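Exercise 7b. Backbone tokens:
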């Protein structure tokens, strides 16, 4: 038997639909246009079985599939937006299943009806989406620091963000060799290094091969700002604050170069 459209439920769902659409696209105007199309589709359709909520999310899901996300690279220091950019970079079905489960908190049978899958396939799909998201957000980080204690502190901060430390080096020569062996997604470097070498020189040499973003963690920030680096570079003064370092890393990894390489 066909269920009548519950218009009061429809109105109450509009803010949630807009939230879902904005998370999927990263663009307010695009999201609102898709939401409007979904509402028009459901209102124009003849009565049919199913809940109003499922019909609306299904119509919106189909509208969103026709659109490419327009989200911009994350703004410096905005960690949540960096993660959102990673979500939008997922393949469409993974992206939508993950948002419907984690953001909209819909049950598996409802998600299955929305994305046109057997209910038993929903959990494996959202699990795969989370796995791919973690892989996209996980970076390989090279640490260039000649003080053992500081280097270990940096490594601990890197790991709390879910990233991997590829190498810890103490001189510019070691850093360049390590980067050639295992190219990093990000370099954390001091300016003054062992063997009278410079972190600035190390990163310059690494960047002749890879346009890798860098965060200088140094007691001499003025030496970094005096150099025209040409690639994304961030500075955190020593003694460093962990939160400032994390925000600098998020900003560095959210640069267009990094996001394109993760796509």
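Sequence design result:
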């Amino acid at each position: 038997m066909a269920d009548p459209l519950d218009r009061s439920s429809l109105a109450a769902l509009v803010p949630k639909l807009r939230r879902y659409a904005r998370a999927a696209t990263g663009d307010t105007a695009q999201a609102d246009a898709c939401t409007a199309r979904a509402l028009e589709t459901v209102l124009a359709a003849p009565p049919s079985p199913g809940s109003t909520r499922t019909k609306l999310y299904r119509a919106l899901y189909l509208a969103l599939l026709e659109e490419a996300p327009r989200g911009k690279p994350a703004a410096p220091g905005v960690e949540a937006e960096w993660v959102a950019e990673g979500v939008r970079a997922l393949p469409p079905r993974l992206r939508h299943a993950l948002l419907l489960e984690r953001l909209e908190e819909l049950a598996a049978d409802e998600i299955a009806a929305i994305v046109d899958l057997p209910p038993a396939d929903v959990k494996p799909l959202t699990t795969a989406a989370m796995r791919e998201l973690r892989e996209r957000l996980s970076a390989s980080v090279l640490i260039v620091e000649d003080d053992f204690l500081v280097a270990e502190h940096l490594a601990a901060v890197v790991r709390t963000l879910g990233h991997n430390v590829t190498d810890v080096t103490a001189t510019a020569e070691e850093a360049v060799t390590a980067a050639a062996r295992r190219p990093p997604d990000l370099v954390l470097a001091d300016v003054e290094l062992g063997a009278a070498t410079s972190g600035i020189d190390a990163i310059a040499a690494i960047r002749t091969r890879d346009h890798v973003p860098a965060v200088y963690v140094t007691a001499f920030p003025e030496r970094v700002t005096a150099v025209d680096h040409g690639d994304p570079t961030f500075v955190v003064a020593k003694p460093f604050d962990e939160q400032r370092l994390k925000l600098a890393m998020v900003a560095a990894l959210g640069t267009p170069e990094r996001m394109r390489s993760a796509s």
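Instructor comment: The chain is about 55% helix and 10% strand. The beta strands are 140-144, 164-169, 186-189, 192-193, 197-198, 214-218, 233-237.
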